Amino acid sequence: MTRVTPRILALASALALLTAGTARAQNITLPPGGANQKASVSQWIGLVEVNVTYNSPDVTAPNGDDRTGKIWGQLVPYGMANLGFGTCGAECPWRVGANENTVFTVSHDVEIEGQALAAGSYGIHMIPGEKEWTVVFSNNSTSWGSFFYTADEDALRVTVTPEKSAYTHWLSFEFIDRQPAEATVALRWENLQVPWTISVPNVNELYVDKIREELRDSPGFSHLSWAAAANFCIQNNIHLDEALTWAQAAVSAPFIGQEDFATLTTLALAQAANGKGEESTATVLKAAGHPTANANGIHQMGRQLIAQGQKQLALQVFQTSYDRFEGAWPTNVGMARGYSALGQFDKALDHARKALDQAPGEPNRQNIAGLIKKLEEGKDIN
Fold it and tell me: Which domains does the chain possess?
């Protein structure tokens, strides 16, 4: 039996390293170096997809030592460093993890900490500091570590502030804040986190571009799509002229238009948003009197008109509902709100008391009782 000597073990280790290098050159899939598992985290900001892919070391050293308190400024030095290999010399940033580049990918143009970054994939490097860090987005995203980093390939650098955080054993990236037009991603490791914000200044414009594209395809054969498109623009106060065109299509475009309470209401809103007040008033009244309208829908329309300051028109709408549905719930509530908006509290109180007798369920009764109390005190209930 052959005796395994230290010399044989050393030779075996050298052969293993050589084999690993050859295997990598031949694209053979092997476990990640140093057991630093690959990970990925994604987040959407509206239609924009953001992804960070990285290799994750842990706080414990390969020999089992606990490196807590020895990560920042020691294992990961502050400032640029000489890694003893590669071409970056003494100007090597941190690779932000282990093994291959940490890769940051965005599907659309964004802003990082208020600075523009085009859609694409970037290698992330960092220059740590005790009080501030520099996050580097390199146009080179296919390198191993930071050994061959060069500033000539920088797409963007931003300065951010590190923060204390709960202990994180495995280096991780996490989206710690998510808003409709921006998200904050943070590197977390040991007791530190380094956050930066990705924003999409034109997030609603991207939706409109997508809507335009979709209205030319199968969604464009439904009046519901045209109405939803118009409502999106109205709600966000953008492309109002286009919203009017889309709202008109929802009502009356050949083969797809459908005139009903919902599409007429959308058209009225689009007309008002485009300064066509008289046309909007006529459309509102047409919607309120349309066969597809119900008392609840008209009630919500009236409340919306009050919120917009169109108090007299709101009362007309509430009156239409009251007459059509013969005072059924919730038409008396509407009349009470309509008169209250105009300061006619006695008439409002009369309808509110009738509404109390009709109210379905205890929550509605309590709500109406509260409105009555305010009216008795001479206060507007809207």
Answer: 32-199 (no CATH), 203-376 (1.25.40.10)
